[in-house]
Amino acid sequence: MLTEPRTDASAAATVSAELALAAPTRLSIRGVSKSFAGRRGPVQALAGIDLDVAEGQFLCLLGPSGCGKSTLLALVAGLDFPDCGEIHTDGHRVTGPGRDRMVMFQESALFPWRTALGNVLFGLELKPGLTRAARREVARYYLDLVGLTRFAHAAIHELSGGMRQRVALARALAPNPSVLLMDEPFGALDAMTREKLYGDLQAIWSQRRKTILFVTHNVREACVLADRVAVMSPHPGRIVQVFDVALPRPRDINSERVAALASRITATLAGSLPTETRR
Questions:
Q1: What whole-number distance in Å separates Cα of residue 193 and Cα of residue 186?
Q2: Considering the domain boundaries, does residue 150 fall inside one?
Q3: Is the dihedral of CA 140, 146, 148, 154 positive or negative?
Q4: Which of 69, 99, 123, 210 has its CA 20 to 30 A from that of 171?
């Protein structure tokens, strides 16, 4: 059970404001295309992407390697720019990185010279108006949220892969963004650790209500986590079909209803692949 952070009166209002639920953001992607220079000429990664993500919605981008999922995520993050088309958050055009959008990568990308708490503090150090005490209270709250209270002062090399990803999740949540962008964050973990994190992430999303754009090539993972699943085809990347996931939460990856939906999505995914890939 999470408890309210304890702090002195002078910092209480600041901490409360930091922990207040950020208003969820609506994402709008219109006509987005992106190409890269290749040895044999331009390589088109994305073509004519149109996609909407409602406020507080959890949407998974699902597709095989090379279909442009991570490229699209980078464009939404403002880490790169489309050749044509526009991306908007609540009607504001994305022109670069912003505090309203935080990214969590497949690798934890933690600073090895910092403790778990120190890594979560990193994003807060760039936020104006926070005292040192307030930053530590907020960071401890998010470590508690991901179940790592006891490991606040642990060195990164002392943590398992799953624990490192929990620290990375806490670090992404700590600045209280409206949008969380997750690029296959569980892809390198073992099956048992992934399944535990599926439950944890569902609980955290239900509590914090972030708009989440989650990249995966795991069909069942998408069915367990998402409100909607956008299936992408490769060469170039396009949205083939969007599935609504009307299953009650929390979801179990081994449930029959998840398996049934995964089978339907897999059939669509297989049908979108080039003929030579399916052989």
A1: 9
A2: yes
A3: negative
A4: 69
CATH number at residue 101: 3.40.50.300
CA dist 1 and 18 (Å) reads 19
Which amino acid type is present at position 25?
T
pLDDT number for residue 11 = 55
> Mean pLDDT, 10 residues at a time, over the chain (279 residues)?
49 72 87 91 92 96 93 96 95 92 90 96 85 91 94 96 93 93 91 91 91 96 97 93 95 94 94 60
The DSSP symbol for 3 reads -
In a domain, 28, yes or no: yes
In a domain, 115, yes or no: yes
Query: Is residue 252 assigned to a domain?
Result: yes
> What's the number of CA atoms in the CB half-sphere (13 Å) around residue 125?
7
Distance CA 174, CA 90 (A): 21
The domain in which residue 56 lies consists of: 9-278
pTM of this structure: 0.90
Q: In the prediction, which pLDDT does 275 show?
A: 57
